[in-house]
Amino acid sequence: MAERELTKSASLTLPNGSLNPDALGWARRPLIDTSGINGRQVWGRNKRWEYWNVATPTHVLAMTVSNIDYAAVSEVWVLDRRTEQTWGRAPTVLPARGVQLPPSLNQGEATAQAKDLRIEIVHVDGFTRLRADIPEVKIDVMVTRNPGHDCLAVVVPWTTRRFQYTVKDVALAASGSVTIAGTKHLVPEGQSWAVLDHGRGRWPYDVAWNWGAGSGLMDSRPFGIQVGGKWTAGTGATENGILIDGVLHKISEELEWVYDLADWKRPWRIRGGGLDATFTPTYDRQSATNLGVIASRTDQCFGYWSGTFEGLHFAEIFGWAEDVHNRW
């Protein structure tokens, strides 16, 4: 199955709020104008977020700024990879307030302010500065994006009224620091990698997905893996690709995911479209929320990717694979 590669900008929505057929496809750059996902049409189904994950040799740093119309859901989370100690804050604010998101990617700041949490994401001239504060933790990271670095931007159409635009940007160089309980830990350049998940769309109420990502070096070249499943099935779109030295190799096939959450330490297997990957978990981040209208269950396993892509071998690529079910 071949997907259409977009090379020109397009609006995600038509004036009546439905999906614009000209936006269907995938792109190597964030070409889609998502200003129509603003909460003023189809209220209650709009989902807008910026999620950043930074992996260092010693820590995993994650931050989310999101608005799902009726709630603002923001989070800062830190994992010490050696001790498995974690720090985090994840307030859900009803009704949504204290959150600012740009109409389209890189068109303004993304910020969140809630009790014991502050997040600021600022993009300037190829650099993105990630800053966050929660009790005991202060994050200050600079992410560098080279001009020729491909992302994976794709529109996933469930129907003309329910659709999602996602930008997955993997293997981005990161540097800076995280300070925990007064101790400063470096985010060393050349050994730390950032991943962006940018989302704008109108979602069904009940949905499940898989997402896997990893970043590192292969033969001294930046290497990234980006795979997904469940939520794209039957839409004609996928969010699958391999990034090698900044160049995206798109996988347009749905992948086969085999894993056992009853025994999360068992390796996961993801295959299809020239990819044969094994993900070996070292830590499972489990979370569950039930606020009536909003409910979620997440297993986000961190660990290492290895395998082959079209005969090319890769190994020891740190990242994650997750299984999520949301009612939102």
Strand content: over 45%
Number of strands: 27
Task: Give the structural class.
Answer: mainly beta
Q: Encode the helix/strand succession as letters.
A: EEEEEEEEEEEEEEEEEEEEEEEEEEE
Most strands sheet: 14 strands, antiparallel
Low-confidence parts: none
First-last Cα distance = 31 Å
Query: Residue share in helices?
Result: under 10%
Mean pLDDT: 96
Number of helices: 0
The tally of domains stands at: 1
User: What does the overall shape look like?
Assistant: globular
- Compute the CA-based radius of gyration: 18 Å
Give an overview in words.
The protein has 328 residues and is mainly beta. The protein has one domain. It has no helices and 27 strands. Strands 2, 4, 5, 7, 8, 10, 11, 12, 13, 14, 15, 16, 17 and 18 form a 14-stranded antiparallel β-sheet that branches. Strands 22-21-20-19-27-26-25-24-23 form a 9-stranded antiparallel β-sheet, with no helix packed on it. A hairpin with a 2-residue loop joins strand 13 (127-134) and strand 14 (137-144). The two termini are 31 Å apart. The relative contact order is 0.14.
